[in-house]
Every structure is written in structure tokens, then in C-alpha cells.
Amino acid sequence: MNYYLGLDIGSSSIKTALVEVETGKSLGVVQEPKEEMSMFAQKNGWAEQEPKNWWLHVCNAIKKLKKEYKISRTQIKGIGISYQMHGLVLVDKQGEPLRKSIIWCDSRAVETGNKAFNEIGNDKCASHLLNSPANFTASKLKWVKENEPDIYSQVYKFMLPGDYIAYKFSNKINTTISGLSEGIFWDFKKDTIADFLLEHYGFDKNLVPDIVDTFSIQSLVDEKGEEESGLAAGTPIYYRAGDQPNNALSLNVFNPGEVAATGGTSGVVYAVTDNLSGKESTRVNNFAHVNYKQSIPRIGKLLNINGAGIQYRWLLNNLAVNSYEDMNKLASEITVGSDGVCLIPFGNGAERMLNNKEIGTRIVNMNLNNHHKGHMCRAALEGIAFSFVYGMEILKSDGITPSVIRAGNDNLFRSEIFANTVATLIEQEIEIYNTTGAIGAARAVNLHKGDFETFGKVIMDNDHVMTFMPFKDKKLYLEAYNNWKKELELILNK
Question: C-alpha dihedral over 73, 75, 79, 80, to 10 degrees?
């Protein structure tokens, strides 16, 4: 039996998956290290990781996977890589990292990006970059140029985290258009590297890696890669993408109108469109999706909701309850609208979709004689669901017409109240799938052949769990949502 290997390079762990070449069926997933990877924060708001540690954990995970499933190196026929987005890895001519990676959640370059947005001009950024340069990879590189000139002077190439892992396998430095777009290095209007941004930031174009197709033979494992990883020299790397585009791919989301949703600690709505609108370029991020081509533009519009699962987890930790199941049961005993109790769930830092306002979590209309923790649980699930619906309204105003929503079988989407509320209010069915980013990356190896139909069928056959249908009568849901929105707008308009 032959297999494809998928890697998911997260900031808390590395996940590795094997799928059968013939059927796409997942054999298993291994995680390294056992404990969460640490982040180095020299100052408040900074977050760095050592790229060499990612590679160490990748190699350990592959060895563990081969041992656990008794697989030899020659049975693995291709590699797919998913990785934490927006990170910055800098290497010298020898390919050695010059400093720790400045990762996605590091906010040191916020001011750098805002300044560039105003100096280049909001309209130009929106129409060419589809985004503000904001706190993304390009702005992080500019921060290094300004604050660490000795390091900057030695930079041979910049890379995204997935590019670095591919390089460690193959000794080849390259990247993808999707990767460059997530770093805000891509000019969608000219369909080329954003020269005007490089110029504005004073970057030499030679720092940009060579570009390869997302689905292609990007590079081959070399002898050193074989020695360290335990994969055979000559094994091709066929695929690479950031974690959100890859999550959408894992859920078979490729076409305009298809939407991938994630309900973990934070929530993500990732909608595919063929519309190059940057109207909401400060609230919504626009990246080249995995199947982007100039002739067939496919843009992933990414809307992030910080106050999602973390809100429900906070209640679990602070109410007298034992489990999420208990909380869901308590919530199900309360009627739609939580008897007027309204919870605004934005207590996890600034919310980009609320124009970076930090409004915190608020509980309103609580009656201490009538309401109890069941009302709190229901109001929390509804409040988080309403924030997803609010986000969908922003996406609709930015040219998205949703036709189907697909979600992983993760925290929030396991709750019927949450999933039914979202499905009913946006009048779309929500398909739930049991898959992971690492499995998606492994299956994506097959897409260099271009057969997207079979790829979708593999996901339907292997992973579909259930579908939530919108309720026909949405009157109570609409009433509750409008009450919630009124409370939110009172706060926003203060």
C-alpha cells in the first residue's frame, strides 16, 4: 500500500497524517510535541518561535507515524504542507535562520502597516493588494529592516513557515502566489509581485523566493532531507498552503459561494469569490486561494472572530458545570432568545471585524430572580452564533453570495443550538465534516493531477458527518438576533 503524507505546522503543535493514495482514506494522525510548543515573547504583544524546532518536531512526528503504522520510507509517494500563516522566516546564504520567526500573532508591526496603508493610499492598497499591509509578513520584514539592520543586511531570502519546512526537506527555496498574497506581497491588479510595496518598504526584489504552483512538483527530498526526516530522497513535495486556505481545501471549498467555517478558540469564516473587491480591506482579509489563477481568480475572503470558543470555554471554567455536554444540555432547556439575556462575546482582544475595537464581553438584561446558568449558556452560544452571522453580513456587503457552508466537526459546531442558529439566520445548510488540516494537506497531493471532482468525492465519502438545515420558521431567531445587534451597535456607537 502507498501513502501520501500531510503536515500541518501549527504554532502549538505539528500534526502529521497519512492517507491512502488510492482511496484518500486517512490512516492516522500523529502530533508532536506532546506538550504545546512554547512561544518566545521578549515584549508584550510579541511572539516568536525557532524554525529549527518546527523541523525537529516534523522529523520526530514522521518517525513516530512510520513506526506506529509500520510504513517504510518508500511507501510515502508525496508530501503536502499546511502551515501557520503570516509568519516571517529569514535565512542567510547558507539557508541558516538569522533570527527566530516572527509568527502570526505577533503584533509589533501594526503601526508599520497602518503607516504604509496611509502613505501608499487606502484606494491603491484596496485595489492592488486587496488588503491593508497591516501586521502581515511584509510589515514584519520592514520592522526587522528598521530595528535590526545588522540582521537585515545578511538576509538572503524571506520565507513563510511552510516554505522553510519545504526547504529543509529539499534544500530548495521557493514559495507560492497564495503564500505571497498572505504576506501582502502580491499585486492582484497586475498579477505579479507588488513592486510598489517592495519599493515603499525599500526591499530588494531578490529577497523574494522563486514562485512555484500550489499543486505541482515544487521540490524533491534530497539526501540531507532523507537523513533527517526519514523520507526517501526523491519524494516530491506536491502542495503547500497557509492553514486557512488549507482548511477550506480540506472541506472541499474551492468555488465562488462556498464557505468554510471554523469554530475553535477563535472563529473563522473563509468565503471563496471570483470578485476582486477590497471594499472591506481593513475588516476582511483577501488572499489568493489555493486554486487562484489570473484567468480564473479565486479569492479567499477571511473574516476572523476572536471572541468565539474562548468565550464558551471561559464559562466552562467559571460556572459550576462539568463539561460542554452539561452546558449544551442546560442551554437546550431555555427557549430561543435566552428569555432576553444577551451576551456580547468579544472578550479576546481587539476585533478586526469591529474595526479593531476592543469592547470586551458584556452580559445584558440579566434578571437575578428569573435567570440562571442555563440562560448564560444559551445566551453565550447564541451570542457567538450571532457574531458569525454579523460577520457573514459584512462578507455579503463585500460581494459574497454564500451557496453552502462547510465546517469541521470542532468545538462549536458540535452544538446543535449554535449550528441551527447560524444555519437558520443565514438561510444556508451547514455541512459538517470530520477532517483535519493535516489530512487535507495529504489528500491535496493528488491535486497536481487536476482532478478536483474526485478530490471532493473522497471528502464526501469519508468525512461527512451530518448536515444542519435552516428552520423554516426563523421569526424567534431573527428577533433574538436583532436584539443582540441593537445591543452591539449601542456599544459601537458610544
Answer: -130
